Amino acid sequence: xxxxxxxxxxxxxxxxxxxxxxxxxxxxxxxQKKAIQICPDAEMGxxxxxxxRATPNQVYQLFSRLxxxxxxxxxxxxxxxxxxxxxxxxxxxxxxxxxx
Length: 100
Hints:
Elements (H helix, E strand, L loop, with lengths): L3 E3 L18 H14 L5 E6 L6 H14 L6 E6 L6 H10 L3
Parallel strand pairs: 1-2, 2-3
Helix pairs in contact: 2-3
């Protein structure tokens, strides 16, 4: 059975909050590291763009940082995006290109 740590334990990193501010990627990286410590047997982590507002560059940069700072082989990353503004497929490809 695959254990999945989802980013649902923290507000999505790619979402703009009501005050128009986006949390810094370092916060997501810290939370993902903590999640791995809590559940060290997990095989996969998930990052969500629940509102579909992320740009391809944001997704690529975030997944690149995850691969550098948090990745633990054979740990894998999943991207769950929405196509609200027509960028869903492009964002998913950028997550893939970054190693996610």
